[in-house]
Design a protein that fits this description.
The complex is a heterodimer of chains A (149) and B (93).
Chain A lengths: L2 E7 L3 E10 L1 H9 L8 E7 L7 E3 H6 L6 E6 L9 E13 L4 E14 L8 E3 L1 H4 L3 E5 L4 E5 L1
Parallel strand pairs in A: 3-8, 4-7
Antiparallel strand pairs in A: 1-2, 1-10, 2-3, 2-6, 4-8, 5-6, 6-7, 9-10
Chain B lengths: L3 H9 L1 H4 L6 E5 L2 E6 L2 H11 L6 E4 L6 E3 L5 E2 L18
Antiparallel strand pairs in B: 1-2, 1-3
Amino acid sequence: MPVANGTITPHRGATIELLIGVNVSKRDALVRVGSPVPERIRVMAQIDTGSSYSAIDVQTLTRLDITPIDKIKVRTPVTAPQDAVGFDQYVVSIGLDTGDGVETLFDDVEVLGCHFADDEGIQAMLGQDVLGDCLFVYTGTCRTFYLAV
Amino acid sequence: MALEKEIETYHRKLSELLPNKGKYVVIHGDEVVGIRDSFKEALALGYERFLREAFLVREIQETDPVLVSSRSLRPCPLPTEQSPPIEGRPLNS
């Protein structure tokens, strides 16, 4: 079971370094035709238990040459209920560098493509869709967290 | 806009697709490429046929789902009129 221990910081909360890559279906298709598979990209992800979905900065998705597979509407705090905003949906693989190598946590995860501001210091967000398959322990008094998949 | 045509095709053909509610459809342009039981199978079909092109994979449902976010995210691509200025930099630089 891949495990990550992290520190909770005042501005970013619980963040974890992840490796984002093409999804397994695309990887298999690329290998079949003899095309190179893009290298996985390291991103800093914030764990957000308040979001029902996960999201990745579109620059990372572009570097991986991943195209959207759908578009979905999302209501955010700044939109009126009837004015949900359309987000592109992508499918990626998510891995974790355990120190002894990279362990793939999820082969095919649907994520939203979005922009994170540079000063946020993150390029991804893990929401309930991913956390639903994890054990997440947030120890606020010690400013640490534990994530196991 | 990415997938605009595919989404239009999905809505146009939804009544024909609904007997397969809960399954996943793959659409490329005007063509319904196939329907599969699982998301992974649908993805595999899409990449097998259109490795270098965009295609739509969607669960067949009567209504389009709407997600709710507790956080204000910015979609991509941003509509030009919604693009926020970069902090500390004049708009016309």
